Amino acid sequence: ESERLAKKNPSPLSFQDICNKLKNNEFKNVVVMCGAGISVAAGIPDFRSANGLYKQLDGYELPYPEAIFDISYFKDKPHPFFRLSKKLFPGNFVPTKTHYFFRLLQKKRILRMIFTQNIDTLERVAGIKDQYLVEAHGSFGKATCVKCKKKYGQNFIKPFIFKDQIPKCVNCDGVVKPDIVFFGESVPKRFRIQKNIDFPKADLLLVIGTSLVVQPFCSLIEEVSPSCPRLLINRETVRRFSSEFNIFSQILGGEGGGGFKFDLEDNYRDIKWIGECDDGIQKMVDLCGWNQEFDEILKER
Ligand code: APR
Q1: Which residues are annotated as active site (predicted)?
Q2: 38 FRET partner, CA 20 to 30 A, in 7, 59, 97, 237?
Q3: Which residue of the set 97, 112, 124, 137 is catalytic?
């Protein structure tokens, strides 16, 4: 089986190959999947690293860390979430090189769509247009009354949060919750629609700064065509990119742990650059010869 594939795929693509193809403008539909790792350099902790957010919640008396983003827990006890919101609220953070690299892809008209799990709106702050952004887990940008569903803007809830008060609806006195997707809530309609449009058309998938453990987002990587290379830039490899895992799921007939399909081809099209996001991005910019354009964009920070 693997000899057959080795003949079919003469050699796995390398990081250098991807950059050469980018440099020669061979990719026209780059889809990005990103997570908290890209904002760590901006000063926002990620969730699951040793010093991540889920390890900083002892004083919140939670039954378990993710409860802070659980909708049923929130409806019973909204305080912990709003207390955390003070630390995460947009406005005090500057986007990173990685966010500005997305801006460069947008400028070069090869960015098809960014699917972000982040709620910090830093993609928008870096100049990514609405049409190129799917905020799969929502964001602080808007808010909704949990009782009467009245819509609010970011500026309505901000004063409450910074005065340690629960934002209350002007209509019905219900709690006004930021439009962040909590565990137990469904992902935005835009996510469900755009994923079916953009992933089949992707000619390069860039997965960056995510542990790829949260559904339905993480299984998006299987939605690209078999010929679409998948480049991971992350501090650590993740299960869905690990060839051992692919082989494992192949042995189990493709339904490896986590109930998703893989086949050996994945090993030939999965490229991993393991390290800091901003370092991986800088390396890409250097190998693509895009330094001047990138530096111009960085100057606008
Ligand atoms: N450079 C590269 N990788 C990094 C960096 C960095 N500076 N900092 C962290 N990472 C990596 C971590 O090693 C980890 O693999 O980024 C990944 C972050 O993973 P998580 O903390 O699990 O964050 P994320 O994948 O975005 O979580 C997904 O979980 O709690 C929910 O809704 C929340 O959107 C979030 C979702």
Answers
A1: 137 (proton acceptor)
A2: 59
A3: 137
Short-list 104, 148, 140, CA closest to 122: 140
Q: Are 256 and 296 in contact (CB under 8 A)?
A: no
79 is catalytic: no
Residue type, 231: L
Strand pairing class (176-180; 230-234):
unpaired
- Find out whether 34 is annotated in a ligand binding site: no
Report how far residue 273's alpha carbon sits from residue 153's, in angstroms, rounded to the nearest whole number: 38
Write out pLDDT tens, residues 85-144. Answer: 998 998 889 999 999 999 999 999 999 999 999 999 999 999 999 999 999 999 998 999
CB contact set of 214 (below 8 Å; sequence gap of 6+): 117
172 assigned binding-site residue: yes
Q: What size, in residues, is the chain?
A: 301
Q: What is the pLDDT of residues 159-209, one digit of tens each?
A: 999 999 999 999 999 999 999 999 999 999 999 999 999 999 999 999 999
The ligand 1 atom at the shortest distance from the C-alpha of residue 276 is 1
Q: Is the peptide bond before 65 cis (omega within 30 degrees of 0)?
A: no
Is 169 marked as binding a ligand? yes
236-261 burial string, b = 16+ CB within 10 Å, else e?
eebbbbebebbbebbeeeeebeeeee
